[in-house]
Amino acid sequence: MNRKNMGAPKMRALVQLLSAMSLACLAGLTGSVTQAGQTGSGTVAPSSTQTSTQTPPSQNPGGFVIRSQVNMVLVDVRVTDKSGRPITDLKREDFKILEDGAPQSITAFSLENIERLETATDKSGPPPTIDLAKLPPNVPPEQVIQDHRLTVLFFDLTSMPVDDLMRSSKAATDFVHKQLTPADLVAIAAYSSTLRVVQTFTNDRDALDKALRSVRVGESSSLAEAGAEGEAGATNANGEEVVTQDVSAAFTPDETEFNIFNTDEKLAALESLARLLKDVPGRKSVIHFSSGIERTGVENQAELRAASDAANQANVSLYTVDARGLAALPPGGDASSASPSGTALYTGQAVASQVSSLQGGRETLATLAADTGGRTFYDTNDFSGAFSEVQKENSSYYLLGYSPSKSRSDGKFHRIRVEVERAGVKVQARPGYFAPKSFRQFTREDKELELEQAMDLENPFVDLPLAVEVASFRRPDGKFYVVLAAKIPGSAVAFLQKSATHRTEFDFAWRATDKAGHPVAALRDTLPVKLDPDTYQQVLKGNILYEGGFVLPPGNYHLKVVARENESGKLGTFEEPLALSDSDGPALALSSVVVSNQLQESAAAGKGSARKSKEAGGSPLQLGNRSLLPSVTRVFRADQSLYVYLESYEGKAGSKGNSTGNGSDDAPESGISAGQASRPLPSVALLFFRGGVKISEAGPFAGKLESTGKTAGGKATYFVQIPLQKFPPGRYSMQVNVLDPSSDRVAFTRVPIAIMRAQLKAMGASSGG
Fold first, then answer.
1. What tens digit of pLDDT does each residue of 3-18 get?
2. N- to C-terminal Cα separation, the chain
3. Residue 5 near residue 304, CB atoms below 8 Å
4. Is 558 within 8 Å of 512 (Cβ atoms)?
5. Are 403 and 107 in contact (CB under 8 A)?
6. Beta strands in 157-260 (DSSP E)
7. What number does CATH give the domain 438-582?
8. pLDDT digits (tens, 9 = 90+) for 691-729
9. Domain 2-56+66-434 class?
């Protein structure tokens, strides 16, 4: 199991729109407004306490300047009757706000009644053209957007083929020309290898039509056309996925491994868009067009929740549209891919796989919409309903502001409750906010408390990019040793320079909880990092690896890790379900498959020490006198070797004969008797697929047998080294086939990997857990 947590993607020259608008907004009542009445995951919204600066309109040259800063919390409130119709006749006196149970004085109040402007008739002619990027200097944006509905049309170009983009563009064009009302202001954004705002908020139909025509498939390959390979995770001029990026410039961080499997990048793009919209007052709706967001098996659930929380914090609702439209799946697939082999086409397995893949791409879209108060639209070729729903659901709301009576920068969560003194109404508002606090003000107790709170809170933290791999191996006592590995890009770390060295420190907290939420296993560790000048430059372009582990009995768990870099205080979290199955049936069971490109000399004196450590329940990745370091991101270069390690476990009906085998010297030594030498050895074979076509295969390679100390059978270990020089760059699906001839059993699994062109390696620092 492999996941990653990404920070926001790099953005180039973005948002002329919002840069000017954000500066203007700081002069008035602005701040982040969190979506009201959230349903779904029930996560608590991050801090939205903002500072409003009031400056006198004119100052005498050379005179005194007096400025005041006031912490103001803005709350977006929707009030509806029993039938769900909005109530628009409430006054400030009808509302009551409590923070942590204490009443607050409402200092700002406004009603955004979009329906009134939408239904109004203007006898003098059409409404005036508004473009927020071209406002006069003396016109505040909040005055212009009063009673307007703000909608962003967002196109995910990394997922949409030409047909889907044409379908989405046509629907957006029809909306602009047929459904746009005087109350609508629309912006257009697109994500390819970077996030780009194509058009700022405007009601100019001609400008919007021109912007829509400029959004096209192929933007993600613009860097490749310019002579570079492009951003990893994008597509090149041939439509193939890019697995390298240009890192030839001095001090360019090599973040290819974190970009290659780009599901998190798509989510991070949404998070970045929400943060750009944060300083725009009022509710914003983002209509997200894509062909689904696939679950690749390397995404971090924390990034999904971070995108949702960023949208809630910025008062953004996501309305996701599956641009594939009404999908008809031919059994076995269409002519765009090879027909499935074997019996899958005749047993229904091929069709089931097609349906599962289609629904899997929609699952993330549905989650984003539900968690931000929006909706998802799929299985329809008419997207006009999506635009109608946005207009209907964003007709009116109240915006309340108050200065906390006990304003403290304590970093704690403060609960908000909004009440209305009218019977029979439904009030929807966000539950609270986090107060800010500087990390340098933290005491040791504060730092420990922060880790505990971050572990207990459902809110994700994604300031520190974090990739995590979890691998499980069965022990002789029936429990599982769970390998925990985390990789952090050096470019995201704030190092403190002392003399000629650069230093930092990481805190890691891991916890596994059962279905009832009770902690079952935990690991708390601190990793100090001290680098000389040469190593420091290498780490800036590379990664820092941490490895640890704990033991768990069979069962279903929820795993969470919190990582903190102690110079800047950046936090990163990772979460995923962890299933450890005690397979005592007749089937051949497999452990996790660990892939690596690095073997490190261990502190053990020799194989004897390593073997004793494994027998005592230590890490199974201790191979002889060397340790296998997990790749985590599963990205390799053509000048490296691919190391593969896994274990297989016999079922109850397994053969009782055993043999010692003759594998690599680095593989674990067997602990079986000489009388078990007649048993045929199990073996492993590796098959490499690209685009559904087998490119290469290796093996079979004989495994090594070890006694598990149980009468149910034994364990076989497999360690394989594959040179990658002859593999062309690209994404691969590595199928691992294990055959046990003594029991006539076969087991297999697949692991996604990526291979890049050979170039200078970006070295990193590593540490054991």
1. 444 443 333 222 223 3
2. 18
3. no
4. yes
5. yes
6. 184-191, 195-202
7. 2.60.40.3880
8. 778 889 998 999 888 765 544 457 889 999 999 998 988
9. alpha beta
